[in-house]
Amino acid sequence: MVVAGLTGGIATGKSTVSALFASFGAAVIDADLIAREVVARGSPAWEKIVEHFGTGVLRQDGELDRERLGGIIFSDAAQKDVLNRIVHPEVFREMDRRIRELGEENRAKVVICDVPLLIETGMHRGFDEVILVYVPEPLQIRRLMDRDGISRDEALRKVRAQMPIEEKRAYATIVIDNSASREETAGKTLQVYQYLQERAAEAECKGKR
Fold first, then answer.
1. 111 has a pLDDT exceeding 80
2. What kind of fold does domain 1-26+109-208 have according to CATH?
3. What DSSP assignment string belongs to the chain?
4. Looking at residue 208, what is its pLDDT?
5. What GO terms describe the biological role, i.e. biological process, of this protein (predicted)?
6. pTM more than 0.70
7. What average pLDDT score do residues 59-84 get?
């Protein structure tokens, strides 16, 4: 089995590539979905969040009010760090559990872990491959403007709030350039998937010797 981390930047098309990998047969583990699950009402992470931020971040049904919590951490880096220290370890543990489960059941040869903050959290060091979905920053800004209907200044602010996409390239072992059409990106993604399948097959052969 080969386990690859998949990341990108805002409006680079990471979700599109993630869906393509799934359509080709890879097992995709989505960190964003897990992040929602681990903060469900009554969970250990939920309890820590309420203890720190107070009941004001809860909806009437007791679940987290993501918009309200987001408003708190958006302009306060210290509070954002607190939230990340609560949530990230829970996400990583659940991802590891799912990877082990897939390995034990031999349900997938290629596992893609879709993690937006893969490099920022240092999690990239634990994967066989680090795949970056890339577009140049000017195109990233233009696509974000079109997608969200926002001004260039707002798009620039959101892009610049993240780790620069060019800086992420230095950490990637595989880069999927999503600057052209969806069809071209699909072709590139398929090539990467086939390469990962080959790596998985080689690893399995070595394991049987």
1. yes
2. Rossmann fold (3.40.50)
3. -EEEEEE--TTS-HHHHHHHHHHHT-EEEEHHHHHHHTTSTTSHHHHHHHHHH-GGGB-TTSSB-HHHHHHHHHT-HHHHHHHHHHHHHHHHHHHHHHHHHHHHHT--SEEEEE-TTTTTTTGGGGSSEEEEEE--HHHHHHHHHHHHT--HHHHHHHHHTSPPHHHHHTT-SEEEE-SS-HHHHHHHHHHHHHHHHHHHHHHHHHHH-
4. 57
5. coenzyme A biosynthetic process
6. yes
7. 91
